[in-house]
Amino acid sequence: DTFVIFSGDGDYASAVKYFLEKGKNIALVSTEKKFGREFNYISPVQFFYKIFADNIEDIWSESL
After folding, report:
1. Strand pairing partners for 51?
2. Which of 9, 17, 21, 25 has the fewest CB atoms in 10 Å of its CB?
3. What does 21-53 look like in DSSP terms, one character per residue?
4. Tens-place pLDDT, residues 13-60
């Protein structure tokens, strides 16, 4: 029920929107500079998480 996408590519925005409408959890992991503006058009919901990190070590150290 949770999807984690390691990309900020805006091409995934329609898929993210679809899964959110189906009640799924989505986490996008990307650098802030590479985060597609298409995601800004998705209404904020409690199941949509944006995780910004410059490298993978930032993600692991934040979750520990």
Report:
1. 29
2. 21
3. HTT-EEEEEE-GGG--GGGGGSPP-TTEEEEE-
4. 999 999 999 999 888 888 888 889 998 888 877 778 887 777 666 666
- The first and second tokens of residue 34, run together, are 């590479």
Q: Using an 8 Å Cβ cutoff, are 13 and 42 in contact?
A: yes
> What is the model's pTM?
0.72
Contact 31, 54 (CB under 8 A): yes
> Where would I find the H helices in 1-64?
13-21, 56-63
Neighbours of 53 (CB within 10 A): 16
Q: In whole angstroms, how large is the CA radius of gyration of the chain?
A: 12
